[in-house]
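P.,

For your records, the input lines for the assembly:
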Amino acid sequence: MPAMLNIVQTASPPPLASFSGVALDFGARRVLNRLDLEIGHREVVCVIGPTGCGKTTLLRLLTGLLKPTEGMVMRNGEPVAGPAADVAIVFQDYARALLPWRTVAGNISLALEAGQVPRSERQQRIDVLLRKVGLSAHAEKYPGQLSGGMQQRVQIARALAQEPKLLLMDEPFGALDAMTRQGLQDEMLKLVIESGTSMLFITHDLDEAIYLGDRIVALRTGPKPDQSSVARVFDVNLPRPRDQLATREQPRFLELRRAAFSFIQEGGA
Amino acid sequence: MSGKWRGWVVPLVLVSAAEFAMHGVQSYALAAPSAAASAFAELAADGTLWRATFETLGSALAGVVLGGGLGLVLGLWLGLSRTVADAASLSVELLRPIPSVAMIPIALLAFGFGWRLEIAIIAFACLWPMLVLTKSAVAQVEPRLFEVAQVLRLTPMSSVLKLIIPAALPRIFVAFRLCVGVALVVAVTVEIAANPQGLGYSMILAQQTLHPENLFAMLAWTGLLGWSIGAGLLSLQRRLFAHYGGLQ
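Structure tokens returned:
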């Protein structure tokens, strides 16, 4: 088990975020049930599971946009009351989440304006963020002029502008091609580790979950009243920094991949 | 012949046919295109044309600004607040179908002849399409943007100014274009029906003094104005909203 995970589990301060006994109903349908989950500081937790298992719901509970029907969702030991400045979210549908009438720099600026960052500081912070996501040359372009991968980088930069402690990623690379996706996975890991941010990453892609995560949480669809939504938790235990070729060839990676695949095939999730 | 010029064939044939048919004919109802053209030159030279044009376009513009502006504000309000929309919907549905020219008698009593009469009726005519279309433009704003506003913790005021209005703007501009068209139609109608000024009144005057060539000159000019204003606004729209991507 990596050292940082041990610290998280033994340290006395409350976890960055936690769910205890959370249930959520949409009308008569129970989407999440008896959900217990902690997200530690500097931890990357990936959530997998079939469509309709409540992955996005789980993430929205952390933004406070949704309230649980039962149980508690906590941040730093306090119940989540609403969106917080240090919780940022990256949506899958970058084309809808960006403002088409603002340039790349303008889109990033929106987060700074919302955070009341004085005008004089904004430009410099935008420049830093643009450099981080490799878009310095495209600051004055409009989202419609960029490729999907670049648009998603804009959204990531806007999320980072909030200087989040917790970054919520809702299948962020699901709409991108394989090469772009791998590049963004590596950049994301680098950014998250550099800034010491925790990340809750939702994905359909098991390989992506294993490659990115410290832990993988598999959710099940339609939990029975006595069942938890969490079907299984996998500890990844792969060394960092990770490498697209070397990491994916490690026995531990293949072992996890086999376990997770057979788990899903058996309908466990 | 390229497609761009093909559209001119029919009008040119019709004008030539009219010229040929009217050759040597004396009429109090019709005029040859050449007669209308020389009447146009005279009306332009003595300033009648420019004065009438100024009166009609001035009223139309003032009416669009007043009625469209009020419609925009009310439409935003109704679009943003469910409660307000519910409270206002019956009143809007009752007032909206009233033909704007049916307001001429009341407006005459209130304002008498002149600018105010015409502007008030144009404003009434522009208010409703602007209100209804702005409300629906707000309703069609991408729901994801509201979530973005919440997650970034934008204040309600900056959500409206920085997200909702810009997102609805292309559709609001379409409503504005529609209002300009409505305003021109209503302006000329009010001038023909009641108000002794502008292009509409020039046509009535030409009719009553048995000068069909003046009538046709004014008619052609009015059509040309409407077409060029419409085309101008369309190209402005394309330029303004180029970055929004296939919305129209």
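Two observations worth noting. The interface with chain A takes residues 142, 144-145, 147-148, 150-154, 158, 162-163, 166-167, 169, 241, 243-245 of chain B (CB under 8 Å). DSSP finds eleven helices and no strands in chain B.

Regards
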